[in-house]
Amino acid sequence: MSKVWFVTGSSRGLGREFVEAALSRGDKVAATARNSATLKDLVAAHGDAVLPLDLDVTDRVAVFAGVRRAAEHFGRLDVVVNNAGYALVGAVEELAEQQLRNVLETNLFGALRVVQAALPYLRAQGSGHVIQISSMAGLFSAPLGGGYHASKWALEGLIDSLAQEVGPFGIKVTVVAPGGFATRRGGEKPDPLTDGDQAERNPIYDGIRERIAAFVDKSPGGDPAAAARALLTIVDAENPPLRVFFGPQGYQIVQKVYADRLQTWADWQELAVEAHGKAEHDLGPTEV
User: Fold this and answer.
1) Active site residue: 10, 148, 172, 189, which one?
2) Which of the following is catalytic: 11, 134, 135, 151?
3) In this structure, is the dihedral angle defined by the CA atoms of residues 121, 126, 128 and 132, taken in order, positive or negative?
4) Are strands 128-133 and 79-82 parallel, antiparallel or unpaired?
5) Residue-wise over 101-134: b if at least 16 C-beta within 10 A, else e?
6) 156-176 burial, b for 16+ CB within 10 Å, e for fewer?
7) Of the candidates 164, 64, 154, 173, the residue with the CA atom closest to the CA atom of residue 108
């Protein structure tokens, strides 16, 4: 049975690959972009199976109108892919407050708007799957990414709560954390030090920039088409994962990051108990 998709950020990158993969197997897609003219070739190739929509996720009214139009046009929504987002690069000291507000407006509040607009339709159906495209940046931090990390860490918490809230209504939720993918023309992967919004540089951090650039240069870009095929597997799964990496790097990195966190908490647990003023065995239940 074919599915109906609603995908934000469909004009390029992974969003475009997701749309093409869904259409190629006979699904229907409401594909959104800030300029739907970038989707003309999809309409030419797939006709009525694709509904192109102008949509900026920072516009709440437009988001709700777009979701409503998609649901009314196709009669249902099965897969909602929150893909729109962008990077913010700069040391914390370099960030302008407005830059941070802007990235949160798209990466966090944009996702919130799409979810809030889609949930009434999914709940009425008693089914649906929300796919949140996050990032490895939502699970650990690196220098020069504080603003972007802030948006993705907040998104991780938001969507985790969402999954617990909507599961009883038959709605599935998956957070996808991609690594680097070759989504540019010519097979190049985006460069986190030059793409997205850039904070005004302070020369004192140039050494860090050089180290990050060297690391990025050594990291291979993944195949976007393979990511799209993987997403099809997830949306077809009877019991899809709440969290999944796209790419091998994420799991490798978080093993060390999380082990280090656990060890630090363990090393300071005695102080943690002292700070509470109670014996550890008197602290009560640990589950909500």
Assistant:
1) 148
2) 134
3) positive
4) parallel
5) ebbbebbbbbbbbbbebbbebbeeeeebbbbbbb
6) bebbeebbeebeeeebbbbbb
7) 154
Q: Is residue 218 annotated as part of the catalytic site, yes or no? A: no
Q: What is the pLDDT of residue 180?
A: 73
Q: Taking the domains of the chain in order of start, what are their residue ranges?
A: 4-247, 250-288
pLDDT tens-digit map of 44-57: 999 999 999 999 99
Q: For 132-167, how does the pLDDT look when each residue is reduced to its tens digit (9 = 90+)?
A: 999 999 999 999 999 999 999 999 999 999 999 999
Compute CA distances 184 → 17, 42, 148, 191, whole Å: 12, 18, 20, 10
Of 211, 184, 179, 208, nearest to 195 by C-alpha is: 184
Token pair, residue 45, equals: 């190739």
**Residue 214 pLDDT exceeds 90:** no
Query: Catalytic residue at 152?
Result: yes
Helix axes 146-166, 97-104, angle to 10 degrees: 30
Separation CA 113–CA 106 (nearest Å): 10
CATH of region 4-247: 3.40.50.720
Give the pLDDT of residue 187. 45
Whether 120 and 228 have beta carbons less than 8 Å apart is answered as: no
* For residue 275, pLDDT beyond 50: yes
In order of 100, 190, 205, 212, the CA distances from 217 in angstroms are 26, 11, 19, 9
Catalytic residue, from 3, 28, 152, 172: name it: 152
Residues with Cβ within 8 Å of 192's Cβ and at least 6 positions away in sequence, in order, are 87, 89, 144, 145, 212, 216
**Helix H segments across the chain?**
13-24, 40-46, 60-74, 97-104, 111-125, 146-166, 206-218, 224-236, 249-267, 269-276
Pairwise CA distance, residues 212 & 206, whole Å:
10
